[in-house]
């Protein structure tokens, strides 16, 4: 069945576009693998770089049918084609997210956007207004909520298996910025991450602390109400934080800590969560994502395992392999797209969307979290409401 | 760039076919994901079931362009098309592997085949002869050799980081056959696995013991020379083994044990390997595949990690994500296809193949291993040469 | 060689006394095992309970030669005997520590005291003055510093293997107070812990947070400079905290978090420490105490193991068994006594003490830490200097 | 209460003697710590070396009241004293176990003996006859059965929580003999272990394989019925095995493997056991002894923990610390003595012994296991009955 199939219905491979992700970028390839993993969609068009040559060669690497030098043109032309893209993936540096997303929303093309949603809270709120007005779908790739074990954890909280939530401990530790790697001219990733012009007001909290906060909120089903933050730039000369520690208070009474770092020597991508309630506890580590530790009060710890002992529908619908065949980061990413593409099909076929992937509201809230963390830290770690 | 592109060269998405893997089969979807993961190929045609209706609906599920009721027809017609498939994936039950493979080899279509290679040693040897004659490519999906950490382990042995190999301990434990699940009419997987007509002379050794043996041989670079085996069918009424224990002697002097089971209560897919040499030891667990434990003599254990501390080119060329973004079973599978597809491109472009994926020779050797294990067990666990 | 041996020198088993630890108490037996483990001392006298009957029966259980109804009498009479005790162990509830310790210090008998040192900062400072004046030995059982791996960690920091200390993450989680167990009339332990009259101004921070703080300070060799604390009593009706979260700033620039809880469902005695520096990281878990994880920059994690790969003299002098023969909590406790008894021998023989066990200064500092945590929490988590 | 107390009853510290364990020996100190740990006994006399000077200095190190140059004299003189020893601990090299044990048995003194019981099967059987005749108590220190988690495991099998036992996997890996360390004149331990004159017919199987076999039999409650063994001396010039692999068949139908090594590079003292039944599985690792993994069919793995979730009386009676305060090797050792000393008290007080520690029958069986392993290996790994 041809990818250019122009049947009115959704019974075909969906067509995707990409903005950003040209040669040298890591996250572009991840989005492509993720969106295509289940064979439900194919990326056919892209504006992968603002440099025309890179835009072309990157598109050729991926065997794309069409490429563009700029996303505005892409949005207009794709919207006009009968076999144009159904959705677009935005994977540029942070400062372009909102601009690119708006172009496609206004062209009536569904958007899946990398986090953080925008450059500032204001821009995020404005984008949210545009998205609401556009009436098309908008998703945000808070990847880590895509893991089956994380979805099970959320369901267990919803089912009151933990009781009253008392304590949450979340962390996200890396070490890739522990030295001044941004001084290497080749280190594009590091350069824009530590550059306030591209990354915004925060490096570490913006890039990974926001994932940690989102994970807490997703699993507990309650937002972080207020924070008391201490942000630091440990590497001399750095303008943005590369480390942060926070006290948390959740809506509804739980308390805890959030700690994140890009200078934690020896850590790769250690996102970990513990939740303690009055009836049970949970523990999950992203680096061994197929295990969810459940600690029911007065009983032995249970090691729940993807495909084997996760019980929820929410976990089952994002699981592909039998027990003991480990799934990883790419599958978690693909899970968000699986849910998003199902909504795209529903949209095409005129049925209401179901969701299940992070929404623009979470994106706006995430921007607020970043802004409030910086604010608290600047105010000598005073409590600040999110 | 269209999948029907008929350019003479390989600068396009390659076209794949599939035999077997219809609705209800697990491994078909795995092969599809694996072969398409890197965006280098697309499955376009299939003979996914011997039942015409299932063949059609399975193909439609996958948006295939063409489907067939039988693999003979498929081989001939695809070979005749200008935009026919470049390669085929054989994912039927064991007793059809050789027959299907031969059809495509004779049609000049490259083959990637599920293991075990064939139904008997004789059939395997005959298939190997056909493959040699055909001059096209033949690969075997001994999946577990696709993991970066396993490739690193092999390289470390080659680089003499372990010294003289003294002891190997390999195991593969599952529990999915611990009860008589084959009595459930829906349990197609279980039924053919325990049926001598479909599975051959062994269930447990054939299905998973052979993976364990292959893993030892791949990592140590030396074949199992002789075995002393004790096979058992623990579940009453079962005709084939569901458990086995073996003593091993390697070519070149190392010794060890291989133990496998499908009735090991609580085990999912626990394939684990330890190798001990005169200078160092190695340990790897498939269920946490991104860690390779290295035990250099007189020094602390080192936890080598995918993308971070694996040093070999062999590991690097099959790695997709940065450190701490776990890769799993599907990626390992995709790695074999990555190497196979690179050879398909080389073939198209007239350059010699490079290999790196399991070959038909390993397939024949694997069949011998299974036969010898049964023979030893029947001879009161006498030593038998492989 | 008889325990009543009155040779002037130290070439004999030393004689110990105990205050507190009567039937039903847990920690008394631990002290007895710990002090006697190396065969260097024997407990011969005790004032194990303020109830005469319990004092007698408890002493009989232990085959003590002498028992007393009150510690004042014990101090005086033991000091007067030729074969009197060389040292005393204070294991009462918190509010009696200082009173009992003073009685023995003034009688010229060496003291090993349970933590926290005293009931208030003032009382602690006063006791420190008495101790200084007495010129006899004073030790404090911050048990967890007794583990070989912890001593190695400290030495590694001293040897600059971690570089500049940037981040510390310490936690101490338990769940034994997650319900209102103090309402059970039999639960003596729980009752005094949550009673401000016996425990002081804090339950959780006083009991276990103080261990966590001491561990950070012991390993990093630098004191906690200031804290920003959020203490909570989660169980309704409780007057003292059963949970706390804190931001930390160390003297010399490191930052971090300390979190402790007695309501963390499923946790037993999870004291864990991570330290991240500019050159390396360290990780240690009390529940698996024989492993120290070292994370040198740019290299694989190393699992250092007691007796095998700990390199320091500090670790070696507190190790008893060969590699892989796990040592635990009782041995860690015994290690503090091993060092303390060596000083007692030195004292008897007229040579200067060497130390190595927690001193009264750490005890006073620990009391300040508890007081400042409460103060910060009461001031809406403001930064407070320790 | 004085250790020389000559009350007729048992209400006093019991008096122990030791044969062997002089300066430089590791295991002597372990026995002393173990027997004294609970304050129920004290070692007062010893024949710690066949060299008079070492016998004296070793005894002085331990503050013993009496020492002897030879165990015969010791047995006679201690039996004659009113305040003589109640029991003796035999910790010599293997070839002296039986001789020393007989001397004390004939003197009516209870014996706790290191394993293996004797030098040959014949000597073991003869010793068993002497022990039976003597009517005094005899225990054997198969240490690893002293762990609470191991006792829980045994009880779970007895309670049919595992169902029919199908598969056992036991291993004991070390690396201390991976080089020819016996060539170092200081390496007394290594020298006698590899010397057939002192160690007997086997090094690795005799020293540690026998522990592994005992552990399987203790936990499953069934003996090893037959074995198929492959013993190797990997280090050139060594006369006895330093490695072994075996197939096992248990009485009652279970099968499995036993593998042990003293040349497994990087292993410390890795004794591990897995048992798989028709209803559940168990897993235990001596190096992390406070966790017992339970794998009930169709449910998540449960991590049972010492003091917290071990349910049996058998575990509880050998547990000293609350949850999360790890117990280790010395405590496991002390547990055997705790049970043995309780029997000594019963004996003194005229009540029947209860047991619970390894008996002389297990000792004889263990000797047979060693002999049969060597026999099978010499017969080209034929099945041999134990």
Automatic annotation (TrEMBL), chains A, B, C, D:
Domain Gfo/Idh/MocA-like oxidoreductase N-terminal: 15-140
Residues in GFO/IDH/MocA-like oxidoreductase domain copies: 150-283
GO terms of molecular function: nucleotide binding
Residues forming coiled coils: none
UniProt-recorded name of the protein: Gfo/Idh/MocA family oxidoreductase
One Pfam family it belongs to: GFO_IDH_MocA
InterPro entries: Gfo/Idh/MocA-like_OxRdtase_N, Gfo/Idh/MocA_oxidoreduct, GFO_IDH_MocA-like_dom, NAD(P)-bd_dom_sf
């Amino acid at each position: 069945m041809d990818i250019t199939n122009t049947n009115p219905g959704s019974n075909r491979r969906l067509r995707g576009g990409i903005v950003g992700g040209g040669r040298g970028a890591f996250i572009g390839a991840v989005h492509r693998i993720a969106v295509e993993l289940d064979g439900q969609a194919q990326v056919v068009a892209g504006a992968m770089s603002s440099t025309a040559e890179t835009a072309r060669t990157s598109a050729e690497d991926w065997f794309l049918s069409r490429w563009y030098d700029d996303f505005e043109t892409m949005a207009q032309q794709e919207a006009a084609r009968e076999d144009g893209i159904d959705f677009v993936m935005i994977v540029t540096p942070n400062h372009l997210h909102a601009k690119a997303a708006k172009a496609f929303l206004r062209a009536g093309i569904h958007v899946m956007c990398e986090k953080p949603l925008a450059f500032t809270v204001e821009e995020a709120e404005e984008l949210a207004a545009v998205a609401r007005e556009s009436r098309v779908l908008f998703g945000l790739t808070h990847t880590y909520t895509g893991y089956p074990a994380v979805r099970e954890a959320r369901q267990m909280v919803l089912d009151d298996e933990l009781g009253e939530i008392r304590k949450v401990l979340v962390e996200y530790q890396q070490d890739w910025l522990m030295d001044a790697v941004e001084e290497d001219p080749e280190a594009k990733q590091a350069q824009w991450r530590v550059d306030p012009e591209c990354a915004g007001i925060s490096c570490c909290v913006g890039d990974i602390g926001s994932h940690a906060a989102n994970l807490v909120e997703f699993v507990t089903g309650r937002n972080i109400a207020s924070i008391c933050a201490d942000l630091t730039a440990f590497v001399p000369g750095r303008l943005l934080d590369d480390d942060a520690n926070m006290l948390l208070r959740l809506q509804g009474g739980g308390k805890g800590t959030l700690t994140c770092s890009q200078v934690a020597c020896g850590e790769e991508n250690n996102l970990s969560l513990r939740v303690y309630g009055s009836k049970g506890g949970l523990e999950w580590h992203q680096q061994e994502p197929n295990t969810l530790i459940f600690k029911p009060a007065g009983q032995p710890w249970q090691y729940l395992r993807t495909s084997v002992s996760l019980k929820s529908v929410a976990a089952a619908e994002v699981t592909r392999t039998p027990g003991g065949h480990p799934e990883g980061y790419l599958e978690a990413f693909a899970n968000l797209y699986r849910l998003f593409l199902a909504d795209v099909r529903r949209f095409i076929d005129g049925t209401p969307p179901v969701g299940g992937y992070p929404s623009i509201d979470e994106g706006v809230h995430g921007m607020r979290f970043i802004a409030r963390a910086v604010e608290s830290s600047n105010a000598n770690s005073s409590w600040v409401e999110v």
